[in-house]
Amino acid sequence: MAELVIDDSNYGDFLPHKHDRLAGCLPRVTRYGDCAHAVPDRLQPIPRDQWDARIKANDEHGAWLYDLAKGIPCQDQDGLGYCHAYGTVMAMMVERVVQGLPLVLLSAESIGGPITGWQNQGAALDQDLQQAAKRGACRQQFMDGRNSISPSRWKAGWETDCANHIVTEWWDLDSGNTFDLAATCALIGVPVNQGFGWWGHAVAGAFKLRRGKGGRYELMSRNSWGKDYGEDGFFWLAEGKGTPDLGLFAPRQVTASEV
Amino acid sequence: MDNRRQAAMLAAALMVAGATLLLHPGGIGTGKLRVLIVEETAQRGQLPPDQAAVFTAKAIRDYVGTHCVEGGFLTLDKDADLSKLPAAWKPLAANPKSLPWMAIEVNGRIHAGPLPGTVEKTLALLQRYGGA
């Protein structure tokens, strides 16, 4: 598929039912600054008058998260309403690569399952992050099949394996001004999970920032609807529809226990 | 080149760089590098663009991918739980005097100092210890 840009003029074409997909991102359940394991007010947005210089530097050095994340296989939640968890584990996988840790494919179901009672339903992103901080995510190889939410069929030891991939610090960036904060994360190489009310959907970001049509800024995200979406899951969200309003969270440190 | 001459040249290079040289008796001894960057991640946005790019720059990733021991490149937040790090990393993580801080170990020697201000300078420093 060719480059995909979603903006205020065309977003209706990309709603989940147009793609026979489920979305499952719900409003956060904790108040900002009141979430266990999270650090609020950790990041100051980079002023917009500095963005173009930083975009240029990242372009010159191939220093975008995209350059590191494109080596991670695109995920597909298929008929599962676990976008909240798929976005979370993609951000965790990217953060591990940024830290220099080996690439491991993490199970979104091991995060989303416990917080939904192993039902196929949506959840809030702060619930996923709390689960990732408390219990962690196991590797996909423990599952009995793709998108399985039947842990009784998974390989023994999956819960123990979760403890190898725990988020030890995460930022709650949901303080308002979320587009600028997501753009700042893109500029400094911090992966996020972000939710969008118009979409009812969560996707991992912020892989790249650029000026698009008319000088408007656009942020690159990655969907979990398979590799045929956008370019291997990567697509652009223009400011406006690209402003996260159902949560913006960054897993900042993931355990390095296997180094 | 004998060992004493090598050591003298290395010491001279380190003096030029204003670097700290420590001897680490439990060195890895493979000739490849082990590289650790310690940072305050929340401050990355306050770094100059060319220095902030070091953390994800392709040239740095390519270099450490071929010149480090396996799994020998790591970036950590200053608040990370170092108790879970394998012993080989602990001498590199000890006592950063400023942030961001970079420590390089090769053959039991540790060079540690402030992270250079650009991708090019960081790569040059890595090449000084790990070769081209």
Question: Could you explain how this protein is built, in words?
Answer:
Chain A is of the alpha/beta class. Helix content of chain A is 26%, strand content 19%. Chain A is built from seven helices and ten strands. Chain A has an eight-stranded mixed sheet with strand order 1-9-8-7-6-10-5-3. A two-stranded parallel sheet of chain A has the order 2-4. In chain A, strand 7 and strand 8 form a beta hairpin. The longest helix of chain A is centred in the middle third of the chain and has 17 residues, at 83-99. Chain A is globular and about 55 Å long. Chain A starts with a strand and ends in a 5-residue tail after the last strand. Chain B has a single domain (20-130), classed as Glutaredoxin. In chain B, 34% of the residues lie in helices and 25% in strands. Chain B contains five helices and five strands. Chain B has helices at residues 3-17, 49-52, 58-67, 90-93, 119-130; strands spanning 20-23, 33-39, 68-77, 101-106, 109-114. Chain B has a five-stranded mixed sheet with strand order 1-5-4-2-3. In chain B, a hairpin with a 2-residue loop joins strand 4 (101-106) and strand 5 (109-114). In chain B, helix 3 (58-67) packs parallel to helix 5. The two termini of chain B are 18 Å apart. Mean pLDDT of chain B is 82; it is low at 10-29. Classes of the chains: A alpha/beta (259), B alpha+beta (132). The interface between A and B is medium-sized, with 38 and 30 residues.
What is the rounded distance between the termini of chain B? 18 Å
- What is the number of domains of chain B? 1
Give the C-alpha Rg of chain A.
17 Å
- Give the topology string of chain B: H per helix, E per strand: HEEHHEHEEH
Q: What is the CATH topology of chain A?
A: Cathepsin B, Chain A
Kindly provide the name of the CATH class of chain B. Alpha Beta
How many strand segments of chain B? Answer: 5
How far is the N terminus from the C terminus of chain A?
37 Å
Please estimate the helix content of chain B: 25-40%
Instruction: Give me the CATH architecture of chain A, please.
Output: Alpha-Beta Complex
- The tally of strands of chain A reads 10
Main sheet attributes: strand count, strand direction, barrel closure of chain B: 5 strands, mixed
Which class best fits the helix and strand makeup of chain B? alpha+beta
Q: What name is given to the CATH topology of chain B? A: Glutaredoxin
Give the overall pLDDT of chain B as a whole number: 82
Quaternary class: heterodimer
Number of domains of chain A: 1
Mean pLDDT of chain A: 93
